[in-house]
């Protein structure tokens, strides 16, 4: 992965190209309390700094933008490099205490947001936010990220509907470079194997699943690959699929189980695009 990135950087000297690391992190109950815990926030900061674009889920600040603002201020301390795009509290119209926001943080010198829309279908407990990015590293290279965090007990139904979100983005922007990322809850009994043929996203002619079933994305070592990255074949052709993995920040930063759990019950998942 590093070698490929180095190769990408070498090519960057010849052409204008470079790789981007994209991550998705279910940052369990990320609300006012957690965002005021300095120890936890410094770990989250390190995680964010690893990425060029990171989707953060379970952002819980439904009356204002206190949580994204605190995180942005922290990661930009000293040298400003990130901007954010945050959804309304979702689902729209539900009891406000049960809503959550999606937050994308991105390095604005490498990518910019060129358009976005909020999907509103009520089948989703947290309807996807759809964001189109343009890479400043490669002239004219645009791609679409679709966030998802399913309700575990409704995961199969929500996963079936995701193909409609992909189609909407594709039609709206005439762009087939599309990635769906987040906590799919695509493990354990939530999404049993026998349901997979009924989920269009599992059609391997059209989509590639980059995080394998045996990648445990939970901190508790439950053995479940809940968090996933799924891309269209077009997007797949412009990436390094072998770089797809979870980011075990417990090992990487030498944290104890308790320190890790204070941050989240999930590890981020990530992939490099070239
Ligand atoms: C944001 O809303 C919370 C209540 O959810 C409140 O405690 C906090 O003071 C507000 N922060 C700002 C900056 O307005
Ligand atoms: C998968 O997608 C292709 C292309 O759209 C389609 O022709 C094929 O019927 C699909 N396969 C299944 C099992 O739905």
Automatic annotation (TrEMBL):
Any GO BP annotation: DNA catabolic process
Key word Nucleus present: no
InterPro entries with a match to the protein in the record: DNase_I, Endo/exonu/phosph_ase_sf, Endo/exonuclease/phosphatase
Signal sequence coordinates: 1-19
Endonuclease/exonuclease/phosphatase domain segment(s): 29-266
Active site: 100, 149
Residue ranges of the TM segments: none
Lineage top rank: taxon: Eukaryota
UniProt keyword Glycoprotein present: no
GO cellular component, one term: nucleus
Molecular functions (GO terms): deoxyribonuclease I activity; DNA binding
SUPFAM superfamilies attached to this UniProt entry: DNase I-like (SSF56219)
Keywords: Endonuclease, Hydrolase, Nuclease, Signal
Protein family (similarity comment): Belongs to the DNase I family.
Identification of the protein by name: Deoxyribonuclease
